[in-house]
Amino acid sequence: MLVLTTKTHQAEAAVEQWADVPVHDRDGTVLGSAAELLPIFTALNGVASEEIALRYFERVFAVCVWFPTVMTEPGEVIVRTLPPRGIFHVGRYGVSSDPAADTKLVASIGEEWAAAEFQVIRSEDVLRWKYRKLLANVGNVLQALLGDTAGAEDLRRAAEDECREIFASAGIAFAGDEESQAAWGALSIEPVPGEPAQLGSSSWQSLVRGHSTIETSYLNGEIALIARRIGRSAPLNAKLTALARRAAREGLRPGSLGVEDLRAHLGRV
């Protein structure tokens, strides 16, 4: 199996790189390609990577990742949770020709990943969880731009409210607040000795590492895309997406904008 853990905007390049890699048996005989034979698990934020993978791979499994970690230095991953370390909702994307085999595969992964103190939950409708995670991720951009989001709570709520409204208009189902709390509430996030308390989201990490690209186009930008498909608009999330692209393109770091500067850019002074 393959587990895809890039950012969504990097997914297609990774999938294309692996799709035609030959798969060998124990004797070295080529049995076929990775895309033909290996299941791929898309453990990424957003809801676009599954469709990207399905263009190449026969068997795609969507993974909703709830795993608060930070990587700002190569080779160093800061895990901030007590056991369970992370919770993963997993389910087949697309129509399966062998549901029993899929169920068995996900169960076996759950047993193996439990050794690393992860919890795997099989879901018949895993996209409900990925859309719920997408709602949670629309605030990532604020931390990436501001660093310290104190005083920007209303902007986060406004971005989330716009997201909820677009989901409702588009008929998109997602896990509710109580359901999410029941599933994800088992995670206990603790400070890591020797590390600052302000350790940010995946989008924040991209700017800290100085990347010239950022995942926001598949988070806030996804909300804008959904809105445009149904003849609506999501102006706040669209503007936040553009600001994130600019920050990555210009090499800006978290904190490059103050709250009032951001309000001015968003027209919410």
UniProtKB/TrEMBL annotation:
Keyword set includes Transcription regulation: no
Matching Pfam families: ApbA_C (PF08546)
Segments forming domain Ketopantoate reductase C-terminal: 125-246
Keywords: Oxidoreductase
GO molecular function, one term: 2-dehydropantoate 2-reductase activity
Keyword Membrane (UniProt): no
Stored Gene3D superfamilies: N-(1-d-carboxylethyl)-l-norvaline Dehydrogenase, domain 2, NAD(P)-binding Rossmann-like Domain
InterPro entries tied to this protein: 6-PGluconate_DH-like_C_sf (IPR008927), 6PGD_dom2 (IPR013328), KPA_reductase (IPR013752)
Enzyme type, top EC level: oxidoreductase
EC assignment: 1.1.1.169
Signal peptide region: none
Protein name per its UniProtKB record: 2-dehydropantoate 2-reductase
